[in-house]
Design goal:
mainly alpha, 0% strand
Length: 130
């Protein structure tokens, strides 16, 4: 009887050892999966940071190009405006030297009308773009 009990106990011990091995194997598999999951998460975060930096660089470059374009447009507008004012002043001076007071009045009223019209249209254009 004792031999039979010993065999049953040994058999139970072997079954318990098998179950422990299976549990250890499952635990090691879970540990490997967790390590790989953390590595993948780290890679994802690194790629996300790189993508955000690249996108921020592209956005800043685009903003710089827009500012350069706006600066060029403003510079051209100032050159045209300066040239127009210089032309009007030159015409007025020549008319005054020639003693043409009526011509001075016509030049001044025409230039004021043109400047007023240009100012109104520019004001409307700015409000539409904003």
């Amino acid at each position: 009887m004792k031999d039979q009990e010993l065999l049953e106990v040994n058999h139970e011990i072997e079954r318990i050892n098998e179950k422990v091995k299976n549990i250890e194997q499952i635990a090691s598999t879970i540990e490997k999966l967790a390590e790989h999951g953390l590595e993948s998460w780290d890679k994802y975060l690194i790629q996300k940071d790189e993508r955000e930096k690249r996108d921020a660089g592209l956005a800043s470059a685009k903003h710089e190009r827009e500012l350069e374009l706006e600066s060029k447009v403003n510079k051209r507008a100032m050159i045209i405006l300066g040239g127009s004012i210089f032309s009007v002043v030159l015409l007025i001076l020549v008319a005054m030297l020639k003693d043409q007071n009526e011509l001075v009045k016509i030049i001044l009223t025409s230039s004021l009308a043109i400047a007023g019209g240009a100012g109104i249209t520019n004001m409307f254009k700015k409000s539409k773009n904003s």
